[in-house]
Amino acid sequence: MLIFSRTRKPFGTPKPRPPRAWLRLEALEDRRVPATLQVTSPLDDGSAATLRYAVLHASTGDKIVLKGAALGGITLTQGELRLKQKNVTIQTSSDQDRATVSGGGLSRVFEVATGASVNLSNLIVTGGNAQSGVFSDPHEGRGGGIVVDEGGSLTMTGSTVTNNSAPPIPLPDNPPAFKGGLGGGIADYGTLTMNNCAVTANHALGTFGGGIAVFSGDPFSAPFSASLSIKDSTVSGNTARQNGGGITGVASTITLDDCDVTGNSTSLYDGGGLNNHGGTMTISHSRVANNTAAEFGGGMQNFAGGTLTINDSVVDGNTSRYVGGGIDNGGSLALKDSVLSNNRVPIYNFGGGIFNRNSGAVTMKRGSTSCPS
Question: Can you spell out the DSSP letters for 210-249?
Fold first, then answer.
């Protein structure tokens, strides 16, 4: 006989449970869809459909589009528009339309804040006054139309910066001292890129850069990085009290390609068209013509320590009162495939084309110079 036995579990013994699964939330990347904010009102009261409202409520990646009545022009009455969002674009509804944004002679028009990356297209920036009225503003009196703060980035396309001014701001010193007064059109302390633009009839009433001032540190504090790249554009009819009627660069990097720098002037010092102070300036396929300096470098001045390279360009019809009708050079100057013609020095007659100082070095390759008849 076969006997089978089976060990029985005690009654009520629980069955083994599977491992417990804990629920948790996992963070995903930001998947917000960029918005388009429509600006149809020409007012500046901060109400919906105004540019001020759009700038205040825009988020990273948004596009602000001016259309309808806003195309007739917007005049600021509440102070500058501070662009602090990353990757924001302000443009018109069509490439055939252009819109004017004016400071009304009361304030700067735009400030591009540190860390912001801004695109402006088909705009006319005008009537800006850099006198902010905020004494703690480090850029008070700088950048009549636009200031790009340290670490900010601005790209402008198909736009015009015109009839803006940067006045000197009195400091509470005894005897009186002043700050600001530079970058009549734009003061750039960050990264500025301009394509198919015009910078015209702006005024630096205190010191440097009637059209544009590019500063890697104030003269002459600890440097930081500031740059300008300008292509297929015009810089004309701007004035500076001291240096760089058209453009001034201090310890910065400036590149001009296919540009006209014409009819700019200084009323006190040097560099009627361009002034390079201790930085690097490269000019290609461009024309620097009919600029006037009160003292040195009618077309341009390259200060000691600066590097100026001119490729396939024309320096023509410029005038300085004392030396260097075309170019006053105290740094490193290289010209290639370029022409200097009809530049003048009516008083001292030193260096109608180029005046090279003791600190300067000049190299020329496949270029030519000529004097007025």
Answer: SSEEEESSSTTSS----EEEEES-EEES-EESSB-SSEEE
- Domain boundaries defined on the chain: 62-370
Q: Is the peptide bond before 223 cis (omega within 30 degrees of 0)?
A: no
CB–CB of 353/329 below 8 Å? Answer: no
User: How far apart are the C-alpha atoms of 241 and 181, rounded to whole Å?
Assistant: 9
Among 222, 144, 218, smallest CA distance to 184 is for 144
Tell me, rounded to whole angstroms, the distance of Cα 62 from its chain centroid. 21
- Phi first, then psi, for residue 95 (nearest 5°) are -65, -20
Q: Are 230 and 196 in contact (CB under 8 A)?
A: no
Bond from prior residue into 220 cis (ω within 30 degrees of 0): yes
Q: How far apart (Å, rounded) are the C-alpha atoms in residues 330 and 275?
A: 12
> Which of 146, 108, 318 has the alpha carbon at shortest distance from 228?
146
Specify whether domain 62-370 bears CATH 2.40.10. no
Q: How many angstroms separate the CA atoms of 349 and 321, rounded?
A: 9
What letter does residue 53 receive in the DSSP assignment?
H
Per-residue pLDDT of the chain (373 residues; tens, 9 = 90+): 444 444 455 545 555 565 565 556 565 555 578 899 999 999 999 999 999 999 999 999 999 999 999 999 999 999 999 999 889 999 999 989 999 999 999 999 999 999 999 999 999 999 999 986 665 678 889 999 999 999 999 999 999 999 999 998 887 777 777 788 999 999 999 999 999 999 999 999 999 999 999 998 655 555 668 999 999 999 999 999 999 999 999 999 999 999 999 999 999 999 999 999 989 999 999 999 999 999 999 999 999 999 999 999 999 999 999 999 999 999 999 999 999 999 999 887 778 899 999 998 999 987 565 544 3
Please give the structure tokens belonging to residue 165: 């001014």
